[in-house]
Amino acid sequence: MSKIVWDETGKRIYETGIKMGVLYPSQSSGLYNKGVAWNGLTAVTENPSGAESSPQYADDIKYLNLVSAEEFGATIEAFTYPDEFAVCDGSVELDKGLMIGQQKRKTFGLSYRTAIGNDVDGVDYGYKLHLIYGALAAPSEKGYSTMNDSPEAITFSWEVTTTPVSIKGFKPTASITIDSNKVDPDKLNALELILYGSENTEARLLLPDEVLDIFKSEAPVGLSVSVDPEDKITEVIVSKNIVLTFNNKVDRDNIILMSSTGTLVPTVKEFDTTGKILTINPKDDLLPATTYLINIIGVTDIYNQTLEPKIVSFTTA
Fold first, then answer.
1. CB burial class (10 A; 0-12, 13-18, 19+) of residue 191?
2. pLDDT, tens digit, for every residue of 180-193?
3. At residue 27, does pLDDT exceed 90?
4. CA torsion through residues 60, 61, 63, 69, sign
5. How do 267-271 and 277-282 pair as beta strands?
């Protein structure tokens, strides 16, 4: 037990600022695979609503409280917006530079940072990473005025509603907040490598289950793979399925099977529930006495680690 102490040095915490906004237009698959920088983002005001109490009475007493569903909304303000946001704002480009409005609006995801400060380190104390899903923007007001002796840049503003997405073990959610001072820094770095992209991968917004997988998993280790059949093995049966076992959950791959003469083999690829074991099933039996190549390329795990390309060969009986 210890006595409560108020306003200790280093514990006078506050939150401020907004930066590093990224827009993720939703794809037809429900994923957010192509993030782009949102320059000029000036404010995001989060507006949760609902969760209102509805008292119920019986036997002349308050019998219970029913609580309405909670919704997440926001107001986004900016000096400008990415070209990719046009479809989220109800605009369609008919030709380069030619836009029409009042079209169907596309949903999007958003990430941004806010700074956490204290009385010792100022705003360098830490930050919160905010992730928003299933956002839909309402039409915005655009006010144009004449230039004068006190010019101001036009600001845009959108009211945003959201549709929650699923997360295992919890009610669907439209928002996630991550505190850099409380999570494993290596796992946070792994998440941000995916959110902001790299030289080899597009920036993308992970779904809540994927975010949870990163922070609940063990510390990431270098990505590796074992292959059945092994490299250079012979006398492989023509009906053989190929199995690749990775040590980390795989996020994406471009693995192909081909003959040594360069003929692509049609296959069906399927990961198990762990995302670590990939089974490649050729649609037809392989040819006898033929050498095949497993081209293991484009493999990235959930920590955004990339497997060095490799080729495994085997020969059928």
1. buried
2. 999 988 889 889 98
3. no
4. positive
5. antiparallel
What is the rounded CA–CA span in Å between residue 24 and residue 206? 10
Stretch 76-103: mean pLDDT: 90
Query: Given the DSSP bridges, would you call strands 170-173 and 108-118 parallel, antiparallel or unpaired?
Result: unpaired
CB atoms inside a 10 Å sphere around CB 251: 19
CB-CB neighbours of 163 under 10 Å: 13
> How far is 172 from 1, CA to CA, in rounded Å?
38
- The answer to whether 193 and 221 are in contact (CB under 8 A) is no
CA 117 to chain centre: 26
Backbone angles phi, psi at 89, to 5 degrees: -100, 15
Give one DSSP letter per residue of 167-234, joined into a string: ETTEEEESEEEEETTTS-HHHHHHHHHHHH--SSS---BPPHHHHHHHHHSPPP----EEEESPTTEE
Across the range 263-271, mean pLDDT stands at: 92
CA 164, 166, 170, 176 torsion-angle sign: negative
pLDDT at residue 139 above 70? yes
